[in-house]
Design brief:
phosphorelay sensor kinase activity, 24 helices, three-stranded antiparallel sheet, five-stranded mixed sheet, 650 residues, 8% strand, elongated, Sig_transdc_His_kin_internal, Heat Shock Protein 90, TPR repeat, membrane, alpha+beta
């Protein structure tokens, strides 16, 4: 019985309380009527759900469906609002659970799970899974399903690090263990939840888990430990001034002391529970306190005192139609009469208990049937709504099709004339563009043998001047670079990150071959998305190669190569700056060696840039080379600025 107290407090902790205003039919339906004036958007859905929550008690008393939730679901389906569907079904399920309609509650919450999954929102899914688990936990024969839902919620909550849902799931699994008398496992889960609640500074959660641990120890017959935890929970509830929590703790302490046969202490705590229950609106707690005190007196053989409290519990239960308590009350009274030897009254009391038991079974069967029928009606209504919405959309499409058909026929002749003119013009432009692209492809194809020839020469020199292990490492890196170059040069455009990746690999090889005579750095502007920006492949490498072999390798001291990439609009600027010997000195060295031919890579690249300028019909594609000098005219290096039009993936 006392497990039910902590379970009730836990449910109250899960469900946010709503301020319920004084309501009457005129006010409620005037509020519903005012919804018609609101625009059919997400704001209206949220308004309907909030009103449905605040006015829920009115519809519960009337035994009617909450039209605010139903309207929110209908509108959310019409405007395809995923959060509205999740939220409306979730709140409707919680409302059904509060009325003990657990089958309907589980059906609504499972729909909330479905829409949370469709929206791929892990937080929504955690909430819906935990709520569905609570629904099944309320049904005594569905604990396995309850565990599955809470376990899924726990795994997902841990993945997204949502402490609130982690606590809910762990506490619920602990309560399932309590129900199946796996007390040690229950304690383990409650202690984990308790630690998280302490870290979150959630005192209500702390009080709940302390009480739950106490109940588990009571189940293990470790009564002193149970009392210790009940008292800890009581202290937290006193700080919170939580009347329901206080009543639960007092009743639990009374139960524990009763098991210890310390009847004086048990009676003291049960009377305190009775006193606190006077501050609680729900009279079921008062009736239950009377019943507990009556049982205590009966155990001590004080039958007159016991029967006084039995009758107070029975009278209150009859006034408020608490059939379960009437069944339990008459059953306990029959036991008391039997203990005192009054078998006739014992039989009469037992007969009344059985009448209420039969009534409860009948009501439960009727309720289960009504809920099953309601689930069927809800699903049928949902399908009808979807069907009507589909028919409406088809009608709108037919109307639009007719309008479009008429306008299309009217515009076809005009477009035919204009289209013919532009087609001829476009065909001429396209022919010219294809010619230019063939030239560009031819030049791009020339880059592969040129680059491979230069690289093989480098490998040959490296093998002769270095040991086999280093040569093998160099050859491995070279093969990677070759694969990347061959892949990249198949395309007219590649992403900037691929171009820079191959450039870094090339620079690492050249740096290794040149015995680290230079360092390099590549700086890309922070606001550039390297995966989205598309540039022609192998467009930067020839200028980098030129900077190394005609500027940096002849420099005395450490060389530095700086590559900077910026983007403005659809124009990319790449600056290659070296602190080498300069172009003038490089030309002198070439002349001394008798090398007067112009770099093949530079020549091909300039041709590619010229064709890119023509294809894109822009003057922005350009290359400028500046000799860097100090005030005395001494060469400080070379700066190459490459300007290119770019494409974007999106």
């Amino acid at each position: 019985m006392f497990k039910g107290y902590f379970y009730l407090l836990f449910v109250l902790f899960l469900v946010k309380g709503n301020d319920v205003i004084a309501q009457d039919s005129v006010l409620v339906f005037r509020t519903l009527d005012s919804a018609k004036r609101l625009p059919a958007d997400t704001g209206k859905v949220k308004w309907l759900i909030e009103k449905g929550k605040s006015l829920g008690r009115y519809f519960d008393k009337q035994g009617a469906e909450n039209p605010f939730f139903q309207e929110a679901i209908l509108l959310s389906q019409r405007i395809k609002y995923a959060y509205g569907l999740f939220n409306a079904y979730n709140e409707a399920g919680s409302a059904k659970r509060n009325k003990s309609e657990y089958l309907l509650a589980a059906d609504y919450h499972q729909k909330a799970v479905k829409y949370a999954e469709e929206a791929r929102n892990d937080l929504w899914l955690c909430i819906a899974l935990n709520n569905t688990g609570v629904d099944y936990r309320r049904m005594d024969d569905q604990l396995e399903k309850a565990f599955d839902y809470h376990f899924r919620a726990l795994q997902l909550a841990e993945k997204i690090n949502d402490v609130r849902n982690i606590c809910v799931a762990i506490n619920s699994i602990g309560n399932i263990n309590l129900s199946t008398e796996k007390y040690a496992e229950a304690i383990n889960h409650f202690e984990k939840a308790l630690e998280l609640e302490k870290q979150s500074k959630n005192n209500l959660g702390v009080a709940i888990n302390l009480g739950n641990i106490g109940y588990a120890y009571q189940g293990l017959k470790r009564l002193d430990l149970a009392i210790e935890y009940y008292k800890k929970s009581l202290a937290v509830n006193q700080q919170l001034n939580n009347s329901i929590g206080l009543a639960i703790c007092y009743n639990s302490l009374g139960s524990a002391y009763q098991e210890k046969k310390d009847y004086a202490q048990a009676l003291e705590y049960l009377n305190k529970a009775l006193e606190v229950n006077g501050n609680v609106d729900d009279k079921v707690h008062v009736a239950e306190s009377y019943l507990n005190i009556a049982k205590l007196w009966s155990l001590q053989g004080k039958h007159e005192e016991a029967r006084k409290y039995f009758m107070q519990s029975i009278n209150l239960s009859q006034s408020w139609r608490f059939k379960y308590l009437l069944m339990e009350g008459y059953k306990a009274l029959a036991k008391d009469y039997k203990a005192s030897g009054d078998f006739k009254r014992s039989m009469e009391a037992m007969e009344k208990s059985l009448v209420y038991k039969d009534s409860l079974i009948s009501e439960q069967s009727s309720l289960a049937w009504a809920q099953t029928q309601a689930i069927y009606d809800v699903d049928r209504k949902d399908n009808q709504i979807k069907s009507l919405e589909h028919d409406k959309q088809l009608g709108e499409l037919r109307t639009k099709r007719n309008v479009v058909y008429t306008l299309s026929m009217a515009g076809f002749l005009v477009m035919l004339i204009i289209g013919g003119f532009f087609y001829i013009r476009h065909r001429n432009l396209e022919t010219n563009k294809q010619t230019l692209q063939l030239e560009l492809r031819s030049l791009r194809a020339q880059m592969n043998p040129h680059f491979i020839f230069n690289s093989l020469s480098s490998i040959h020199r490296f093998i002769w001047s270095n040991n086999q292990e280093e040569a093998s490492d160099y050859l491995t890196k070279f093969s990677r670079l070759m694969r990347m170059i061959l892949d990249n040069t198949q395309y007219t455009f590649i992403s900037l990150n691929k171009e820079l990746e191959s450039l870094r690999l090339y620079l690492d090889l050249e740096k290794l071959r040149c015995n680290d005579v230079f360092e390099y750095q590549i700086n890309v502007e922070d606001d550039i998305n390297e995966e989205e920006v598309m540039i022609p492949p192998m467009i930067i490498q020839p200028y980098v190669e030129n900077a190394i072999w005609h500027g940096l390798v002849h420099k005395s001291g450490k060389g530095m190569l700086d590559i900077a990439v910026t983007l403005k609009g659809k124009t990319l600027t790449c600056t290659v700056t070296d602190n080498g010997i300069g172009r003038k000195k490089a030309i002198e060295i070439k002349e001394k060696k008798g090398q007067t031919h112009r770099s093949m890579g530079m020549k091909v690249t300039e041709g590619r840039i010229d064709l890119i300028r023509k294809i894109n019909n822009t003057k922005e594609a350009d290359v400028t080379i500046i000799d860097l000098e100090d005030e005395t005219g001494k060469a400080l290096g070379t700066k190459v600025t490459l300007i290119l039009p770019v494409e974007f993936i999106f």
